[in-house]
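so my prof wants the structure for this chain in the tokens format not the other one, which i didnt know existed until like an hour ago. anyway here's the sequence
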Amino acid sequence: MTSEFEQLFAVKDAEQEQDPSSGGGVWKVIIVDDDPDIHAVTKLALSDITYAGRQLQFFSATSRVEAMALLSQHSDCALILLDVVMEEEDSGLQLVSWIRDELANNYVRIILRTGHPNLAPERDIVQNYDINNYLTKSEVTAQRLFTSVIAALRSHENMVEVSREVSRVIINSAQVGIMVFDHQTRHVVEANPSARAMLGLEQEDIVGRPCTTFFAGKGSFGLDCLEERRKGTSQLNMEMSLLAANRPPVPILLSAVPVMIRRKPYMVTTFIDISKRKVLEKRLEHLAYYDPLTQLPNRTLFHERFAEELADARHQREKLALLFIDLNDFKQVNDQHGHLTGDLLLQQVARRLQGVVRDSDCAARLSGDEFAVILRNPSSPQRVAEICERIIREVGLPYQLEGAACQVGSSIGISLYPEDGTELEDLLMQADTAMYRAKGEKVGLHGCYRFYSSRLSERSLEKTVDI
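here's what i got, hopefully its the right format
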């Protein structure tokens, strides 16, 4: 038995009141002609016709505009018997173009009839318009009309059946999940095999349950999406989570489209698993923002973090300290033991830095042997000095790297917010300036730190640390 889900894809506008392949119901036929006698004669000639166990139901229109209104109400119409010349010489032809191009209805069969063949030459009409037959009224007999109508109904039936079968194959073989929800209750109407496999559930465990059972994401799913889609403002593709059975939520890309089935609103959704894409995105993000050697934030991420911390400090009326750190005599380690040992040393320095600062602080590798630290809301310059001394002592401890004994020192430059400035570029430049000053004043491997601010020039806050 054909389900509502399959009917949905059987025709362009799934608003049928009957299943064309079943024995019940009627064939809807619209007669469009400005001559009332033509309506009466046509109905009389076709009144006793039955095809595939179904009789004909007639609707009448005397103009192109009336016919357009009827078609909007009865999109499941099987056949139109259409006069060419009505309120205008080409009213019928205009209607054909509207049906095929604007209404996008390729299922309804159209038989053109004209009492003015000179105004509408048959050869031109058949070549330029998508119609199924062209009859001159003066030549139409009851038998010819009968033959044309039966042929048109058979063509309509075959098109719908082929469309249904193709849709059934597409739905069942589609590698994407397809689900349909009742718009009013937001309960699942149907789920295709791919959707069932992704959920790890059988059909009976899916149908009839709320859509929120299976999908999670930002905002209200279903009703809001449908209303926004009708306004033409909603985003068709949404990233959500599929709540599969007995496994973590699966990230999906979901598309939602509102449709009408039997004049009742539904939501058709298609979705694909984007887990691999998300993993790749995370890898690319890590490569873009983290140093591959030390796994610390790189220069790009450091600048972003510093801008964010600076904005938060302004908003919260808090303080910040920025430390620029340069290793002393790192080049000698590279020259003496090789770059592999130098890389191992940089990794150890990164771990020691992370061991000194708090989780709320940020340690980064800017380049080569240059590092930086953002200290959030330090209690005082004295506290910043204590942290610098700890960094110098930890970094300055000996290293045993694959049999190679190494030791380096560190020079640290410090700028403070808001004492030294309030702008990001100024604070970065000041910390860099202070670091070069510390570098120039170091003695051997002894670590040294310097504040940028001239108001903090006391030796207690600006000194060389033995290592």
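also thought this was worth mentioning. The first strand starts at residue 26 and ends at 32.
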